[in-house]
Amino acid sequence: MRVPAAYGNTARWQLTAQQAVSYAVLPKAGLVVTLSGTDQTYVLTAREAGTGKVRWVSKPVKGLGEAYAPKLMVVSAGGKEFAVLWSTGKSGGDALTKAQQIYSIDVFAAEGSGQDAVPAQHLEIPMPSGGRHEVLDGGGGKLLLDSVTDKVTVVDAATGAQQTVEPKSLTAPTGCLQCNGPVVAMTGKGPVVSNSLDATRFWSPAGWDNTTVAPPEADPAQAAVWPVAGGQLLARWQEKDQGSHNVWAVLDGESGQVKASVLCDKPLIGTGGAPASALSPNGRYLVSEHLAFDLTAKKGYCFEETKSSKPLTFTAVTDDGTAYGTSLTKDGGIGGSKAPVQLSLATGTAQALDGVDGVPVADLAGVGVFKVPSVSEGGLVAYPRKG
């Protein structure tokens, strides 16, 4: 596999597609956790990213869904990281009693060791009849269950403690209509709530909302927000005076304070659900799809599609401020092919990576972790950083 110049050409370790049905990265712990298994019995394996050495293997976990594997995610709080495996399905029931629809959630601490590691938390939580039936990372080590319903279940990944949040019982900002919408994030100072009517407002009972934290270029009343890596929020406003741009900003999750912002061309197709994001292991740089931020220098860069430029999507960023991603090269239709690119956050300059087969999906512990590009092979492979 041909990799960017920052990495050596000899692989440090490699996993097949069967060994890595899905994966998650724990950057602070320097681990890559993979999910493997079949027939509804699955195992998590945590490897040291730098060496590929197995740190711990979980006891077998049963998935409730009959047609799909449990979903794997990483949450962090208080400097600790947790691998969370969750699924939905039926539990119990007999000839007289109906089975109950539940969430099954297993939380594994990063610092486990040995074979048959047991989860720090195993939770079985009844599923409401409404909602999207999903578990979301709400930030701050909190999991959100069915966040679009009137009563949101919040689970503390570290302790397993559960609480119910009812947005309509919270005091919304004055003049904010329909501000009892979904909980989009949890912080140390309470939930962040959106507008249920048209998602143009967001607010926190900690005393701030989208109008009080809006950057100067933004229309304060036209906004949306999502949780991103590091317990932070990614917010979007329309440009003031009905301008042709959007204003994007990374916010501190608790105070709402703007950490970095950037003015972007409006996309041809708007953002749908919560955008994917990645944080450099040192916490300085954050990328989220077409956006890249230097949170120390308080700078942001945007790579939306314009009349003269192709859209770029970034998936990983290193401690030295190099972001890696792809450019979508459209072929005149809806589809298109992807070409690897990299971005220097010191200069804001992006460049194509000709002759490269792929870019890292993560960079940590002195290696870049890549997805094997072959459709028939799949899996993960790690190459060491040079120098």
Q: Structural class of the helices, strands and pairings?
A: mainly beta
Helix content: under 10%
Q: Would you identify the regions where 5 or more consecutive residues have pLDDT less than 50?
A: none
Termini gap: 20 Å
Cα shape: globular
Query: Quick check: average pLDDT?
Result: 90
How many E-type strands?
34
Based on the model shown, name its key terms.
mainly beta, globular, four-stranded antiparallel β-sheet, 34 strands, 387 residues, six-stranded mixed β-sheet
Describe what this molecule looks like in 3D:
By secondary structure, the chain is mostly beta strands. It is 0% helix and 50% strand. The protein is built from no helices and 34 strands. Strands 2, 3, 4, 5, 6 and 10 form a six-stranded mixed beta sheet that branches. Strands 1-34-33-32 form a four-stranded antiparallel beta sheet, with no helix packed on it. The radius of gyration is 21 Å and the shape is globular. The mean pLDDT is 90.
